[in-house]
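Input chain follows. Return structure tokens only.
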Amino acid sequence: MTYLVLFVLEVILIYLTSKKVVRLLAGILINIFKNRQVSTYIFSLLYLPGTLFHELSHYITAKILRVPVGGFTIKPQIEGRSIKLGSVSVGKSDLIRYTLVGVAPFFTGTALVVLMFANASVNQIFEYNFLTRLLSFYIVFEIANTMFLSKSDIRGLVRITFVIVLIIFFLILLFKIDITDIVSSLLVNNNIVKIYKLLSYYLIIPVAINMAIMLMGKVFGSILKR
């Protein structure tokens, strides 16, 4: 239970801090270059690996699930006060496949972050190689801060979650299932607990990176204002 709570809190923290980091970096670039269009293109280059990973996750998942999909773009577009870094053209499909395509970046991003640091820890990659460590932290920063869902993806997720909850509720009533036993087994099962532990252990790294960037950004911002 503890590791599940930690995992959920870390995901929420990454989501909240990623938005603040985006605004912070965008503001610093605008202060430096005094030109929104130039700042936008530099900002898009900074986030390019994460944007590419995000859109490819949508695209590849759509191809696997045989959902009609057009091309994808990673060209930045200024939309009012926000910046759209990339997009994928996904055709009509059923609710389940549409939602799976939408949530793909979150699951693939989380898995990649955990696998990267688990592999680095086992093989002691970070012990002597500073450049490898720096590159890995940059990749994790990119993936963690671009793996969250867009508004359209969230709408699809909310719809399918509502449908699943209704189905589960109907099955519980129909077959008189004791849900407390199912929930307790999911929370104390050793294999599932190991997964929660692994997720909570390695996702603290992108949280720490975002916190550090926010702290340095505030220091840098105060210097620019002088």
